[in-house]
Write a structure and sequence with these properties.
There is one protein chain. The chain has no helices and seven strands. The chain is mainly beta. The protein has one domain: SH3 type barrels, CATH 2.30.30.
């Protein structure tokens, strides 16, 4: 089995309109191969972090993906 995820340090867009620039801090793999990301962004003078699902993350560019393989 192989999962393709975005690398920590990748720049992405988040939010309902995907208009917030953020950076991926961590990748978490949960049950059923669900992947979510901890992202960080600035809102005014406040630094925010949040865990969000992979469908809430847009962007990333070529070279930002990382393949993770598992042997059963």
């Amino acid at each position: 089995m192989r999962l393709d995820v975005l690398k920590p340090g990748s720049s992405v867009k988040i939010g309902p309109k995907q208009d917030i620039s953020a950076m991926i801090l961590q990748v978490r793999i949960q049950e059923q191969n669900y992947v979510d990301y901890q992202v960080v962004w600035w809102s005014g003078r406040e630094r925010k972090t949040e865990w969000i699902g992979n469908l809430e993350v847009a962007g990333g560019s070529w070279g930002d993906e990382l393949s993770i393989g598992f042997n059963n």
